[in-house]
């Protein structure tokens, strides 16, 4: 019988963990957190009056992405199909939570587990060097759960931002590299684009990147750009700061960007980019970069740039250059993140006034 785990199962979970793994074991404290506070579901396999295996599923806040955090069967009950049954149940639960992708990491030298995942339809999507305590690498797998349909995805190579405030340059670099694979994505270029596009100030910390500054950075590198926003170009994001001097500096920066754009063949469309329009442009080979509020994903209110990689009938898919390591995330969690369309429309705006901004990058 497979059921949801309870706190009373912790001793059994620890016994399974110690039996199945020599290292990288989940602690009692971590099991307690997973069962009581985490956005997660833990299942146990009960047989002959005892708990013989378990599987733990994590949900990604704000997206329709799930991660198989751990799965194990007691060594005395291995090779009885329990792991396969647990995996089937985990996939069903992920679907019930509107998740379209299930992702996981497994030791590259665990051939039995890898054969199980591959037999179940999981596709290898990458390698993480020195992932485990003994420096063994991990192999990343993912499975698209809904049967009978596939998303329309643009091939966009992932780039992780190297500083807290460089989501704009990282997103822009991913879009430009997708259009022109000869374009090099590296930290020097990331920082150069930030210097070109920064608003100088933001509500806290270093300034983020202006919609108009990013457009100029793309244009000067040989790409065509369309800007979508209904906001005043001189006051866009200015309300994110309270200090009058900072506001004035941001206005001057925006004015400088706006005057240069006016002299260039960059289209500024005083409209909001609808989902239908965005999907149409993706089919034409254009790459959208969208400003969102990070609150729905990270529970912190700051403007944040992402690059849209595709869509299907229910979801928008995107790369997020930020990886939230403090919440035990990996780059795997930030690639082709599926977001329900109704949720995407809510997060694709920022501030009390709901400011919206989008760039379309193309050749």
Walk me through the topology.
Elements: E1 2-4, H1 10-20, H2 28-36, E2 40-47, E3 50-59, E4 65-73, H3 82-96, E5 101-107, H4 111-119, E6 123-128, E7 138-144, E8 152-153, H5 167-179, H6 187-197, H7 211-219, E9 224-228, H8 244-262, E10 267-269, H9 275-283, E11 287-293, H10 295-298, E12 303-311, E13 315-319, E14 337-340, H11 341-347, E15 358-362
Description of the molecule:
- The protein is of the alpha+beta class.
- It is elongated, with a radius of gyration of 23 Å.
- The N and C termini lie far apart (56 Å).
- Helix content is 32%, strand content 25%.
- Strands 8, 9, 10, 11, 12, 13, 14 and 15 form an eight-stranded mixed sheet that branches. It has a seven-stranded mixed sheet with strand order 1-2-3-4-5-7-6, with helices on both faces.
- The chain is built from eleven helices and 15 strands.
- The chain has two domains: 2-148, 3-Layer(aba) Sandwich (Aminopeptidase), CATH 3.40.630; 167-362, Cysteine proteinases (Cathepsin B, Chain A, Alpha-Beta Complex), CATH 3.90.70.10.
- The longest helix is centred in the C-terminal third of the chain and has 19 residues, at 244-262.
- Helix 3 (82-96) links the parallel strand 4 (65-73) and strand 5.
Structure summarized in a few sentences:
With 363 residues, this protein is α+β, with helices and mostly antiparallel strands. The protein has helices spanning 10-20, 28-36, 82-96, 111-119, 167-179, 187-197, 211-219, 244-262, 275-283, 295-298, 341-347, and strands spanning 2-4, 40-47, 50-59, 65-73, 101-107, 123-128, 138-144, 152-153, 224-228, 267-269, 287-293, 303-311, 315-319, 337-340, 358-362.
């Amino acid at each position: 019988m497979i059921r949801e785990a309870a706190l009373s199962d912790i001793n059994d979970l620890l016994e399974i963990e110690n039996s199945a793994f020599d290292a990288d074991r989940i602690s009692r404290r971590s099991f307690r957190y997973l069962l009581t506070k985490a956005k997660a579901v833990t299942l146990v396999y009960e047989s002959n009056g005892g708990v013989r295996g378990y599987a733990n599923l994590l949900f990604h806040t704000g997206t329709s992405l799930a991660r198989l955090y751990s799965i194990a069967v007691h060594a005395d009950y291995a090779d009885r199909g329990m792991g396969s049954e647990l995996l089937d149940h985990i996939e069903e639960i992920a679907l019930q939570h509107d998740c379209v992708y299930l992702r996981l990491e497994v030791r590259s030298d665990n051939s039995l587990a890898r054969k199980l995942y591959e037999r179940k339809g999981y596709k290898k999507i990458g390698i993480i060097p020195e992932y485990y305590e003994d420096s063994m690498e991990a192999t990343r797998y993912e499975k698209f759960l809904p049967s009978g349909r596939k998303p329309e995805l643009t091939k966009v190579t992932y780039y992780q931002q190297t500083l807290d405030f460089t989501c704009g340059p990282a997103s822009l670099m991913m879009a430009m590299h997708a259009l022109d694979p000869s374009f090099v994505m590296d930290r020097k270029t990331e920082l150069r684009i930030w210097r070109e596009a920064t608003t100088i100030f933001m509500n806290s910390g270093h300034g983020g990147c202006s919609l108009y500054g990013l457009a100029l950075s793309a244009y000067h590198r040989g790409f065509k750009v369309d800007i979508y926003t209904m906001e005043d170009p001189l006051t866009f994001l200015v309300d994110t700061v309270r200090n009058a001097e900072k506001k004035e500096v941001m206005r001057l920066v925006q004015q400088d960007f706006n005057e240069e754009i006016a002299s260039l063949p960059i289209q500024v469309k005083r409209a909001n980019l609808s989902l239908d329009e965005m999907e149409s442009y993706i089919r034409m080979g254009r790459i959208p970069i969208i400003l969102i509020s990070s609150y729905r994903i990270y529970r912190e209110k700051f403007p944040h740039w992402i690059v849209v990689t595709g869509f299907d009938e229910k979801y928008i898919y995107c790369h997020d250059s930020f990886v939230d390591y403090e919440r035990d995330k990996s780059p795997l969690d930030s690639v082709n993140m599926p977001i329900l369309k109704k949720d995407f429309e809510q997060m694709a705006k920022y501030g009390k006034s709901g400011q919206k901004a989008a760039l379309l990058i193309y050749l």
